[in-house]
């Protein structure tokens, strides 16, 4: 499997039936940094009512928070790989441990060709037809993720999870979605148009209110509701941005070191947000004021976020409030500082938001 070429949201299945999502675009030469998403019931059973997935001949459960980490650390340590830049273990799969790959664009094509279609597949087809026709895009520009990718979906209850590939296509799609949201006759609306979208939401971020979250999510445009009149329900529909192959560069360098320098709070101006739609989301910044933390935070040249809530969070020219870990990045050629928003002990204290 040494010739594997995978990107964010491609799926890896191991011999045990564990399902991993490839995470981002920068990886060691013989492995992929991943997020473990699902396990068969022979390995893991969850009491979380949202975790159950009917895989047909097998039942699977979705991991939430640090459940997957604990299972791998305790039962399958070979899926904890050493990250040379961070000098610590992260979740990952070596090429030789890959037993199957599921590519979102290939599975979408298979779902489109499925006959006869159930209610969810017909709804997904309608959404795809609408946005491709309106935006001048092709079905080949899209993929699927989540339950649609793995065949776990329920025709009457599951969401529509689509991927769109490439920066230009993401921009065109968002422009088109904005027009569809404004059209009275459209069956596709912005999921975050009203506060109903956050009713009952379990919210744990301490420095980011639900109303601030609603405002930021609404303007991202990639979260929609499809009025499936045939099936009699409104279906949550997400368009996940993923890089096109020609846009990908691998920044993993075993000679680079990333060291944490302390908790930081700053105000900064975003100078480049072209990498904001992806995971990790990156924002080039010009610091304005260090509110707390090391003085070096005033030299932070970028914000790097691995947290989905902070994807597409800010635009060029906007002033943002950031709270997270200051990191010193030393490459063979230079040293610079960045603020990282990622899985850590103070996860829910982290924030990136537009000031005011």
What is the element layout, followed by pairings?
Blueprint (H helix, E strand, L loop, with lengths): L10 E3 L5 E4 L8 E10 L11 E3 L4 E4 L4 H9 L4 E4 L4 E7 L5 E3 L1 H10 L5 H17 L6 E3 L2 H4 L9 E6 L1 H16 L5 E3 L19 H11 L2 E6 L4 E10 L14 E19 L5 E12 L7 E6 L13 E12 L4 E7 L9 E4 L2
What does this molecule look like?
This protein has 356 residues and is α+β, with helices and mostly antiparallel strands. The chain is built from six helices and 19 strands. The protein has helices at residues 67-75, 104-113, 119-135, 147-150, 167-182, 210-220; strands spanning 11-13, 19-22, 31-40, 52-54, 59-62, 80-83, 88-94, 100-102, 142-144, 160-165, 188-190, 223-228, 233-242, 257-275, 281-292, 300-305, 319-330, 335-341, 351-354. Strands 1, 2, 3, 4, 5, 6, 7 and 8 form an eight-stranded antiparallel β-sheet that branches. Strands 9-10-13-12-11 form a five-stranded mixed β-sheet. It has a five-stranded mixed β-barrel with strand order 14-15-16-18-17. It starts with 10 loop residues before the first strand and ends with a strand.
């Amino acid at each position: 499997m040494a010739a594997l070429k995978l990107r964010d949201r491609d799926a890896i299945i191991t011999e045990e039936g564990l399902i991993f999502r490839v995470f981002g675009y920068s990886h060691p030469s013989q492995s992929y940094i991943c997020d473990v998403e699902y396990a068969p019931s022979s390995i893991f059973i969850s009491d979380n009512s949202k975790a159950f997935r009917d895989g047909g001949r097998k039942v699977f459960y979705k991991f939430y928070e640090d459940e997957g980490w604990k299972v791998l650390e305790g039962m399958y340590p070979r899926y904890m790989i050493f990250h040379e830049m961070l000098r610590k273990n992260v979740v990952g799969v070596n090429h030789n441990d890959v037993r199957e790959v599921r590519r979102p664009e290939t599975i979408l094509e298979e779902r489109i060709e499925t006959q006869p279609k159930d209610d969810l597949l017909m709804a997904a087809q309608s959404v795809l037809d609408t946005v491709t026709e309106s935006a001048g895009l092709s079905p080949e520009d899209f993929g699927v993720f989540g339950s649609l990718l793995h065949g776990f979906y329920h025709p009457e209850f599951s969401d529509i999870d689509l991927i769109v590939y490439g920066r230009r296509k993401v921009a065109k799609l968002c422009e088109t979605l904005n027009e569809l949201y404004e059209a009275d006759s459209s069956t596709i609306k912005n999921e975050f148009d009203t506060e109903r979208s956050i009713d009952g939401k379990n919210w744990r971020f301490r420095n980011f209110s639900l109303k601030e979250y609603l405002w930021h999510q609404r303007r991202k445009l990639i979260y929609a509701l499809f009025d499936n009149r045939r099936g009699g329900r409104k279906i949550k529909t997400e368009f996940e941005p993923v890089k096109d192959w020609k846009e990908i560069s691998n920044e993993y360098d075993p000679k680079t070191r990333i060291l944490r320098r302390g908790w930081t709070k700053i105000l900064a101006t975003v100078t480049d947000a072209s990498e904001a739609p992806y995971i990790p989301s990156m924002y080039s910044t010009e610091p304005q004021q260090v509110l707390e933390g090391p003085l070096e935070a005033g030299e932070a040249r970028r914000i790097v976020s691995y947290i989905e809530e902070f994807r597409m969070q800010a635009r060029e020219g906007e002033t943002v409030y950031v709270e997270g870990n200051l990191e010193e990045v030393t490459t063979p050629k230079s040293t610079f500082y960045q603020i990282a928003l990622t899985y850590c002990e103070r996860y829910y204290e982290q924030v990136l938001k537009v000031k005011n």
